[in-house]
Amino acid sequence: MSGYAYYPGCSLLGTGKSYDESTRAVFEALGVPFQELEAWNCCGATAYSSIDECTAFALAARNLALAHRRGDPIVAPCPNCYLVLTKTQRYLQQYPDMRQRIEQTLERLGLQLGNEIPVRHPLQVLQETPGLEEIQKRIQKPLKGLRVVPYYGCLLARPFPIVEDPWNTTILEDFIEVTGAEVVPYAYRTRCCGGALTGVIREAGVRMVHILLREALRQGAQVIVTTCPLCQFNLEAFQQEALGNNGIQERIPVLYFTQLLGLALGLPPEKLGLHRHLIPFQPRHAILQEAVS
Amino acid sequence: MKGNGEVPRIGVYVCDCGTNIAGKVRVPEVVEYAKNLPGVVVAREYKYMCSDPGQDLIKRDIQEYGLNRIVVASCSPLLHEHTFRKATAEGGLNPYLVHHVNIREDVSWVHDDEEEATRKAKAIVHGAVLRVAWQKPLEPQSVPVRESALVVGGGIAGITAALTLAEAGKHVYLVEREPTIGGHMAKFDKTFPTLDCAACILTPKMTAVKDHPNITLLTYSEVEEVDGYVGNFKVKVRKKPRYVHEDRCVGCLECIEACVFKEPRFPNEFDLGLSKRKPVYIPFPQAVPPVVTIDPETCLYLRLGKCKKTCVEACGDRNAIDFDMQPETLELEVGTIILATGFKTFDPHRTPKYGYGKYPEVYTSLEIERLVNSSGPTGGEVVMRNGQKPKRVGIIHCVGSRDKNTNPWCSKVCCMYSLKLAHLIHERSGAEVYNFYIDMRTPGKGYEEFYNRLAKEGVHLIRGRVAEVTDAPLHPEEEGKLIIRVEDTNIGVVRRIPVDMVVLAVGLEPQPDAEDVRRLFNISCSNEGWFLERHPKLAPVETFTDGVFVAGACQGPKDIPETVAQAQAAAANALALMDKGSVLIEPNVAQVDEELCSGCHICIGLCPYGAISFNEEKKVAEVNEALCKGCGTCTAACPSGALSQNLFSDHEVFSEIMGVLL
């Protein structure tokens, strides 16, 4: 047992680099014990499972088996990894023949599945360790006056929600409030960002991004906070197309919740990967500028 | 081959049931197999054993072959055991010398594999042959049926059933847990498809219940305990204290006026919280009984023991108010029971995408029924919470119906009541009304015509399941509105329709305590929680417990005409039983073998019906057959094997098991 088995997944090595950096920084600052899962592989994601389901589950199961060997729960910041690992876990319980096949495959690698390994999202982890009350005490630079849209995206809400009642949860809002920022009511907080549609049916994907951004702007938000690298990517990278092409000049930065939390904890912006964003986070208020600088 | 004395001469009859059994079980093979079983003299296949020629086979064979035991392998004994007992008796044998086994529901209908199904049918027949040899001639007991009935639930179903029985001269106890009878129907303004006023047709019936000499009306009461059996039920009813003597209150309502709360400030349950009431209240003007009730949760005196009690003062010499009133338990004896406990509407908090509870202008259909009702909170005006009339209203069908995430069933009444509400909302407010439906289901007399009428009236009918209701506008004309997002499947386009008010056509669900009520009356529920009828087609108001009937929406979603028809059918069934005056009871009672009984008393303590007593003279247990219900507890518990139960003797049960397993 060496704390959480940190599972970055492929996104956090690529477009979601700043999510990786900020999650590690926040975990360190708040004393969440974690260590990267050694020799982890791709979770299988959507692409693999739509072509060969059983092999895709085997890929995900290998990660579960690695965590089992360590005896640690997995923490997966990417909701897609969270979904795939959780789903694999469920299917392994539900379908004994699939489990048997996968077990045989893993055996050749010298791995065993064992019992259920908990798969958690950083929101859940931080809520317990150290907990919101403790985080509150450690806030150094409260983000007073910052209007934040809490955007969960779809995968934390369904089909395997991280909370009991995803329609009425406030888990993300609670974190935003802890940073001292203001939560903007957002009707679309668990709506799809367009996912892979921006890549395959671009018009449809961009339209979904447009709807989300427009509502955020209408509510007077200054920043959107996400929990997912794909949401972050879609909302940021397609802003020019979604807003600019519709004659809207405004832009809105899209951050990870760990970045917002990191800023409020007083961590240096470059440690949180803030410099990596296409739309820079440049708050107008002096107090916030201080947090960012 | 053993048996109980005489040499068994068994006839075995295997039914094809058309292709119901023969389609899966190789019946000729089962018959050949049966022919070689010990004691079997004749075995036959027949297409429909329950038909007259089928029954005649049994009668003739009894004569020709001198049969003394019969086995019929066909459908469920619940359906036809009675038929074959009768045929056996007509053939000259005691009717309890036939054993009926089920190779349809238990075999052909539930198995795919012909080989396995045939093997199972053989095993069951084998068990029956070994068992029947041990069966004894028995005589059923005849018991009198009391000429009084209990009706549970005072909605339109209960009211109708009670009045029908009372008119026929039977005494009826009508039990309702709310302070007034009337049920859901009392909340409606108009009824479909005729648009006649619900109160105008219901309240005369409510008054008739109150005034009928043969009806004892017990409101604000619940059934607590049910004992006994068909014809002789013993029922305990708990009457909650309403802190007002029903016989003294004249319904002048002066106490309400005088209450220390000057303004009504507690949600009125009858108006689903859309209006307020005082702690002393009457649910609605035509309530029956027309007396007030004091709510202990909100009354200052009952809660804190301190109040000026201005209500008592206002009541004056009538002295109807009594704060010391205690709950009362009444013991009733009735011959038959009719359950008419109704339904509850779906709670749309379970479909958060429609924003109920989040957006104030999203209502349930039942709330809108109160809004359009002239005795409702707005006097029949359709207005939003800000008092203004809506310009556009959207009615979303199938909320909590036909939905895998909530309830899979069609609630049957929502299409029609949604059309009715569309008409009424337009009539009262002039609003443009949109109906969003999956399928428009309007079977019923005059129903399709009503739909056509509404279509002509200009109601927008959009076919598509609504995705969500949101307040986030995309276009300027959506500002400040609720936007309904839906795929209009008739034109293949996703639409956003801004409205001022949304009505959720909530479906019907079993009452939340249906499971408790089911246990109380010893009947069954379907998986969904609706009370289960004895047969879906041929015994729609009977239950598996003799003497207990169901009526109305407690058995499944139903509209008013259907509910009334079913209530009258239930009443007719109960009447038939009571008018006959007696009923034959299965002779499955326990018996004591005095030679074996050691007098240990174990059975006496265990018997749930107090049917066993101790004979001090002989020092043995004795069973009172009139009280014994054949539950088998004593038989299983007796350490000396002295107790046995008719139809379930050890020999019968063990040889059947052996036959099935061999």
What does this structure look like?
The complex is a heterodimer of chains A (about 290) and B (about 650). Chain A folds into 2 domains: about 5-120, Glutathione S-transferase Yfyf (Class Pi), Chain A, domain 2; about 140-290, Rossmann fold, CATH 3.40.50.11810. The mean pLDDT of chain A is about 90. In chain A, about 50% of the residues are buried. The two termini of chain A are about 40 Å apart. Chain A has helices at about 15-30, 45-50, 55-70, 80-95, 95-110, 120-140, 170-180, 195-200, 200-220, 230-235, 240, 255-265, 285-290, and strands at about 5, 35, 75, 120, 145-150, 180-185, 225, 255. Chain A has a 4-stranded parallel sheet. Chain A has about 290 residues and is α/β, with parallel strands linked by helices. Helices cover about 30% and strands about 25% of the residues of chain B. In chain B, strands 10-7-6-18-29 form a 5-stranded parallel sheet. A 5-stranded parallel sheet of chain B has the order 20-27-21-22-23. The longest helix of chain B has 21 residues, at about 560-580. Chain B has 18 helices and 34 strands. Chain B has 5 domains: about 10-130, Rossmann fold, CATH 3.40.50; about 140-240 and about 325-340 and about 520-580, 3-Layer(bba) Sandwich (FAD/NAD(P)-binding domain), CATH 3.50.50; about 255-320, no CATH class; about 345-510, FAD/NAD(P)-binding domain (3-Layer(bba) Sandwich); about 590-645, 2-Layer Sandwich (Alpha-Beta Plaits), CATH 3.30.70.20. Chain B is an alpha/beta fold and about 650 residues long.
